[in-house]
């Protein structure tokens, strides 16, 4: 099971970073490349513990839907969401926030299991893990850009 970890420093208060990371409209803004949008569940505002959102996006040229649920929240330090329906066999994404000097360290931990057994593991090695790492890093950089201009 691939585990992607990414750490970034954001020159903004922890509460700002935490709220931006769970804001549905900001998520849409930070994933413009994949045309991601919320189509069910929470479709605007801040995600809270126990809530779900269904995202529609284009990945690898194919329109896909994925439903995620926030299963844990420790404001403003961390929240975790898991896939409840979608293309992966499973995934868990933990978002952690640590106050640091004038800003915040944001840590993404994304672990997933591809479907289709051996074929999925081959896809991970050939392209999927690299694609997901780039997706996580790009989103973090966009969050940083937005947070630092506030």
Describe this structure in words.
It comes from Lederbergia galactosidilytica. InterPro entries: START-like_dom_sf. This is Cell division protein. Keywords: Cell cycle, Cell division. The protein is an alpha+beta fold and 150 residues long. Helix content is 32%, strand content 43%. It has 3 helices and 7 strands, in the order βααββββββα. It has helices at 14-21, 24-30, 117-149, and strands at residues 3-10, 37-41, 52-59, 62-74, 78-85, 90-100, 103-113. It has a 7-stranded antiparallel sheet with strand order 1-7-6-5-4-3-2, with helices on one face. Strand 5 and strand 6 form a beta hairpin.
What top-tier CATH class fits best? Alpha Beta
Distance from N terminus to C terminus (CA atoms, Å) equals 37 Å
Helix content: 25-40%
Q: Tell me the CATH topology.
A: Alpha-D-Glucose-1,6-Bisphosphate, Chain A, domain 4
- Give the class from helix and strand content and strand pairing: alpha+beta
Oligomeric state of the chains in view = single chain
Mean pLDDT, nearest integer? 95
Number of individual domains: 1
Enumerate how many helices there are, as a single number.
3
Which architecture does the CATH hierarchy give at level 2? 2-Layer Sandwich
Beta content = 35-45%
Task: Give me the side-by-side strand order of the main sheet.
Answer: 1-7-6-5-4-3-2
- CATH-assigned homologous superfamily: START domain
Biggest sheet features? 7 strands, antiparallel
Radius of gyration: 15 Å
Low-pLDDT residue spans:
none
Count of extended strands: 7
H-E string: EHHEEEEEEH
Which shape, going by the Cα principal axes?
globular
